[in-house]
TrEMBL record:
<dbReference type="InterPro" id="IPR005025">
    <property type="entry name" value="FMN_Rdtase-like_dom"/>
</dbReference>
<dbReference type="InterPro" id="IPR029039">
    <property type="entry name" value="Flavoprotein-like_sf"/>
</dbReference>
<protein>
    <submittedName>
        <fullName>Chromate reductase</fullName>
    </submittedName>
</protein>
<dbReference type="InterPro" id="IPR050712">
    <property type="entry name" value="NAD(P)H-dep_reductase"/>
</dbReference>
<feature type="domain" description="NADPH-dependent FMN reductase-like">
    <location>
        <begin position="5"/>
        <end position="147"/>
    </location>
</feature>
<dbReference type="Pfam" id="PF03358">
    <property type="entry name" value="FMN_red"/>
</dbReference>
Amino acid sequence: MNQIDVLALSGSLRADSHNTALLHAARTLHSGGLAIDIDHDLGRLPLYNQDLDTGAPPLPVAELRARVAAADALLIATPEHNASVPAALKNAIDWVSTAPEGLLRGKPVAIAGASPGPFGSVRAQLALRQILASVGAEVLVKPEVTVFHCDTRFARDDRRLTDPYTADLLRELLDALARKAHRHAGRPYTASRSFQPEGR
């Protein structure tokens, strides 16, 4: 089975972000065959400005575009800001979507989100789906990973995911992303069920 390279983006810039912690959990919960690389640099991107969107864009933009181009799929975890996606995440998508190579067209994308509130970032995820659909990304429909009351689902000291239900949903999402990415690449996919997630 060929490896699928996944670039993971957190919509939160906060050091102790539950959404970033969700991406770290993903690195240990998948069924094998995925290499998940977490990007920590969305805060370095300048605000999108068409005057800067030239053949030589700002270095952080060029680096992000290169990482998206090299990835077989994307995994995005988003909090909810005012019933929508955070500005940093929308800004990153704006920069990537305007690359002349059309980097997001047809790119398999899985989304998830965590929120301390009762809705688990469901409105942010809806907005994110609309944004990604408008630029031609292939967004997974199911399962929906909306982690509500997230402060009760992660360890307080190290932000380790402790909720088994959330872990199962995240594992299902990663398996679905692997299947879509393999189909996109024209390769068969068989999950390695001998993989045992850490701490389970």
